[in-house]
Write a structure and sequence with these properties.
Blueprint (H helix, E strand, L loop, with lengths): L12 H12 L3 H13 L3 H25 L5 H10 L1 H30 L7 E2 L4 E2 L1 H19 L2 H28 L17 H10 L2 H5 L3 H5 L7 H30 L17 H8 L3 H36 L17 H15 L5 H28 L11 H18 L2 H24 L4 H5 L2 H16 L12 H28 L2 H11 L1
Antiparallel strand pairs: 1-2
Helix pairs in contact: 1-7, 1-11, 1-13, 2-11, 3-8, 3-11, 3-15, 3-16, 4-5, 4-13, 4-15, 5-6, 5-13, 5-14, 5-15, 5-17, 6-13, 6-14, 7-11, 7-13, 12-13, 13-14, 15-16, 15-17, 15-20, 16-20, 17-19, 19-20
């Protein structure tokens, strides 16, 4: 008997919207504008806008996938259907490790700010948690698990309240700084793009911008628990990302204008804070705002960690269904309607990330680089579903243009990221492919499972070559913008090859009729 019967369909439009915003508005609003300004100066405003545009295209792709086949743990399942076990294995594990790293990072952020009230949790000199701080972060992670353990309804209500609270504080911060302590000359005194516009492009993946927006993925993770998913999923995604984009752009403008002019004597890269907005509030003699921001610095990351804890458990559930993890973790607790074993597993994996991940900026760069690959694969899957006839009347208008455009921009984001930042993510993907090859021979998978996802190997090799030739940490053999144009053209051509690869797999595997039957049951 299918375990999905025990999932509780409790999530409506507002619960989904706050779920998405709960993941988006976390520690990124507290640190992102500062880190982006250090790298790109006022041009960071464009970074947030471009990031929002790209992630909205990707969200629309997932909105259609959620309409065609709403399924808990969908991020792990969709590539399995369209390209087979190799791509699904690599994608699933990259998603899993990226998400498992998020809750410990958010926990670390909470504890770092708590150090102002309980000194000894965070070592300012070494910029890392102390032993006491790590233990406190572990306790906080247990709290996240317990909240999710008691079911979707409690989680939805709690998340709505937390999201409402943490949305008010950044809005209050924007208004307060615009009314006092705003310096318009900061937008031009060092130049709008002091390090060139290339720095603004690199900032999208490396400064927490893309990381912030990817909170929408939790909606897809929990799509099997949504009431009327074909209506509520697209509406919730578009609404939450639109609100978040406006909020983050205003926060970036606010931060740039709030920095005291004298602090820019050594340029934007020279500004140093431990609690950026709280520090600026103190400099502007708004002590009351500094205290509010500091308090919210513990609420916002907590809210994000709660949503990621929920979403990641659903991802593990999907991996177990796909055979990438033991079936033991694909069990739903009948009483609470949540995958409690998956929650426990993610907690243990998260502890492994808590000790080495001691820098907020380092982890968001890695998570952003890992995340872009899984989103690129979804852009291919959505068109494969269309080509084999699964989408029918569930498609979104213009997807034949949205999907390839999203794939091209995802490819460009990887290229625009400094090679030193993205190579770890690519190395992880290569390790994932090698691990799958071991499984391939041990379990004697059919050759179609390997060749169905062959495009990912060629895609990675293409990105490595382009990064080597380019100007973002590469040899700079071909100058930009010409190299970016070449990457976009290659990305578009490669997109259609990847779609062809998926259509070939599904027809060879003969899983189309089976999927059509499962979709009809949902309808």
């Amino acid at each position: 008997m299918s375990q999905e019967q025990y999932l509780k369909k409790k999530m409506g439009f507002w619960s989904l919207t706050t779920l998405s915003l709960g993941g988006i508005i976390g520690s990124s609003w507290l640190f992102g504008p500062w880190v982006a300004a250090k790298l790109a100066g006022p041009a960071a405003i464009l970074s947030w806008i471009i990031g929002a545009f790209v992630i909205t295209l990707i969200a629309l792709v997932y909105a259609e996938l959620g309409r065609v086949k709403p399924e808990t743990g969908g991020l792990a399942r969709y590539p399995l259907y369209s390209h087979g076990k190799m791509l699904a294995t690599v994608t699933s594990y990259s998603i899993w490790f990226g998400y498992c790293a998020t809750a410990p990072v958010e926990s670390s952020g909470v504890i770092q700010y708590a150090n102002q009230f309980w000194p000894g949790l965070y070592d300012v000199g070494k910029e890392q948690l102390t032993t006491s701080g790590i233990l406190a972060a572990m306790v906080l992670m247990i709290f996240f698990v317990v909240f999710n353990y008691f079911g979707v309804k409690l989680f939805a209500v709690t998340n709505n309240i937390i999201t409402t609270i943490k949305f008010i504080v950044p809005v209050l911060t924007i208004i307060a700084f615009f009314m006092t302590g705003f310096h318009p000359e900061n937008f031009s005194s060092q130049g709008f793009a002091p390090n060139g516009y290339s720095a603004g492009l690199s900032a999208i993946l490396t400064t927490g911008i893309f990381f912030a927006y990817t909170g929408f993925g939790n909606v897809i993770m929990m799509s099997g628990e949504v009431v009327n998913p074909r209506r509520n999923i697209p509406l919730a995604l578009i609404t939450s990302l639109g609100v978040a984009a406006v909020l983050y752009v205003l926060l970036q403008i606010t931060f740039i204008g709030a920095v005291p002019t004298e602090m820019l004597a050594n340029g934007w890269s020279g500004i140093k804070f431990d609690s950026p907005f709280a520090n600026l509030a103190m400099m502007a003699n708004m002590v009351w705002l500094s205290w509010i921001i500091t308090a919210d610095a513990m609420v916002s990351p907590t809210g994000s960690a709660l949503t990621y804890t929920a979403g990641t458990s659903r991802h593990v559930f999907g991996m177990a269904k796909s055979g990438f993890l033991p079936s033991y973790f694909g069990t739903i607790n009948k009483k609470f309607g949540v995958p409690t074993r998956a929650l426990a597993l993610n907690f243990l994996v998260g502890l492994l990330f808590l000790f080495p991940l001691k820098s907020w900026t380092a982890i968001v760069a890695i998570v952003g680089a890992i995340g872009i690959f899984k989103y690129a694969s979804a852009c291919v899957t959505v068109m494969v579903f269309r080509r084999v006839g699964l989408t029918k009347n569930n498609g979104l208008p213009g997807m034949q243009f949205i999907a390839p455009m999203a794939f091209v921009f995802a490819t460009l984001l990887i290229y625009w990221t400094n090679w030193s930042k993205v190579q770890l993510a690519i190395t992880g993907l290569i390790i994932g492919i090698v691990c799958y090859l071991v499984i391939f021979f041990i379990q004697k998978h059919q050759s179609v499972e390997f060749f169905g996802g062959i495009y990912i190997i060629i895609y990675i090799l293409m990105l490595v070559l382009m990064s080597f030739l380019g100007n973002f940490g590469g040899k700079g053999i071909i100058p930009d913008p010409y190299m970016s144009v070449i990457v976009a053209i290659f990305g578009l051509a490669f997109y259609y090859f990847a779609v062809y690869n998926g259509v070939w797999y599904m027809r060879k595997r003969e899983n189309i009729e089976e999927l059509q039957e499962s979709i009809s049951e949902i309808s």
